[in-house]
């Protein structure tokens, strides 16, 4: 059975967009055995980490397990959706991991994943990574006919097929929406809740609840000015906002190199729009400054950053429909 595979190699066959859509549609259809929400969450983890790959289009198991842990914690603990598999305890390992960690450390139910102590997060990620090795990587590999990615439990790496990677960038928003919808349907089937009730929670489970750590870093190393209109944020009672330069609704993840300080007026006005191209050059310059600082609290946040990544995010967000450019 494919879910028991410890290693999977790509087929090395060129796939057209039409063929990739066919495989993706088959994965979402009833032809694919999806007794749990695992495969959907792995697909969400792949999408969230599209801009975290290295030059070989590889992700580490830890990167994927972080998103996996975050999604299950926010679903199970924060939103109270505990049933993710109709079968045995072992088959629902990710759910049990977060429940046990919550009980062990008496963590309040309203604590989103980012509020948990980093030591507890790391424990959870390690346990969930083991569950993914048993139940997840091989299963989706089989459902995508060994053509979307390859993986190895020994080296703990995951590598995208280049054509599939380009396809996912081009259709990122649509793939996210399709995955969220079908995941909500699976949750409805397992928990008896309506799709309309669940889908808003599914769309929200990867969102960071607290951007304050990033705000503190940016305030410490840069002038307290709005990135967009350059108003002084230190005077009076002006509220400081942390804005996703390329909108969160597209990126679905938080990287300091895509975050800027903004005044309330600019943040409210910009919302889900893409900033004018002049600001793209500005954020590249800002990120160059971050890199040259080489400070202990910044360097780990920039490990995967390359200038081409913010450029790529900007371009592909436009291809995905974020074509209404904004300026203050």
Automatic annotation (TrEMBL):
CDD domains: HNHc
Family matches, as SMART domains: HNHc
Entry keywords, A to Z: Endonuclease, Hydrolase, Nuclease
Domain HNH nuclease: 213-268
Pfam assignment, any one: HNH_4
Annotated InterPro entries: HNH_nuc (IPR003615)
Name of the protein: HNH endonuclease
Gene Ontology MF terms: endonuclease activity
Record carries keyword Hydrolase: yes
Native species: Alteribacter keqinensis
């Amino acid at each position: 059975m494919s879910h028991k595979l410890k290693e999977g190699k790509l087929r090395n066959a060129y796939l057209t967009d039409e063929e990739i859509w066919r495989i993706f549609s088959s994965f979402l259809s009833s032809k694919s055995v999806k007794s749990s929400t695992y495969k959907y969450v792995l697909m969400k983890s792949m999408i969230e980490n599209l801009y975290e790959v290295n030059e070989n289009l590889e992700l580490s198991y830890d990167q994927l397990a972080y998103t996996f842990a975050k999604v299950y914690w926010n679903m199970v603990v924060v939103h109270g959706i505990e049933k993710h598999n109709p079968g045995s305890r072992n088959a629902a390992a990710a759910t049990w991991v977060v429940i046990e960690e919550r009980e062990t450390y008496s963590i309040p139910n309203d604590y989103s994943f980012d509020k948990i102590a980093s030591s507890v997060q790391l424990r959870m990620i390690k346990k969930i990574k083991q569950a993914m090795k048993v139940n997840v990587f091989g299963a989706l590999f089989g459902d995508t006919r060994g053509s979307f990615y390859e993986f190895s439990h020994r080296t703990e790496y995951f590598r995208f097929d280049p054509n599939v990677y380009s396809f996912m960038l081009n259709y990122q928003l649509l793939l996210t929406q399709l995955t969220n919808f079908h995941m909500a349907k699976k949750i409805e089937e397992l928990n008896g809740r309506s799709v309309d009730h669940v889908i808003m929670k599914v769309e929200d489970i990867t969102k960071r609840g607290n951007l304050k750590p990033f705000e503190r870093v940016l305030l410490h190393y840069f002038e307290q000015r709005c990135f967009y209109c350059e108003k002084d944020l230190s005077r009076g009672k002006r509220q400081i906002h942390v804005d996703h330069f390329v909108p969160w609704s597209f990126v679905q993840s938080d990287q300091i190199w895509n975050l800027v300080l903004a005044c309330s007026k600019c943040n409210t006005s910009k919302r889900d729009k893409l900033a004018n191209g002049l600001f793209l050059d500005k954020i590249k310059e800002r990120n160059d400054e971050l890199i040259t600082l080489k400070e202990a609290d910044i360097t780990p946040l920039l490990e995967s950053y390359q200038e081409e990544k913010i450029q790529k995010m900007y371009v592909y967000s436009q291809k995905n429909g974020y074509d209404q450019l904004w300026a203050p």
